[in-house]
Amino acid sequence: VQNLLQLFNIPQIGYSATSRDLSAKNYYKYFLRVVPSDFYQAKVMIDLFTSLNWTYVSVIYTD
């Protein structure tokens, strides 16, 4: 969608798009997001685990 919208200088706001690729401003000039990319979310989690001296983390989820 962004490829079409940027032809007309129309901004697009992504409320749940977390792909790091969308941060490339040279390709997505009019794309704005309201959530951080997956890269930054992972970085914060790793920083938190490191600061708490955790060496093992388990993930629990339901499908």
UniProtKB/TrEMBL annotation:
It is a multi-pass membrane protein. Keywords: Glycoprotein, Membrane, Receptor, Transmembrane, Transmembrane helix. Residues 1-63 form the Receptor ligand binding region domain. Pfam families: ANF_receptor (PF01094). It comes from Dinothrombium tinctorium. The lineage of its organism: Eukaryota, Metazoa, Ecdysozoa, Arthropoda, Chelicerata. Its main location: membrane. PANTHER family: METABOTROPIC GLUTAMATE RECEPTOR (PTHR24060). This is Metabotropic glutamate receptor 5-like protein. InterPro entries: ANF_lig-bd_rcpt (IPR001828), GPCR_3 (IPR000337), mGluR (IPR050726), Peripla_BP_I (IPR028082). GO terms for molecular function: G protein-coupled receptor activity. GO terms for cellular component: membrane. It is found in: Membrane.
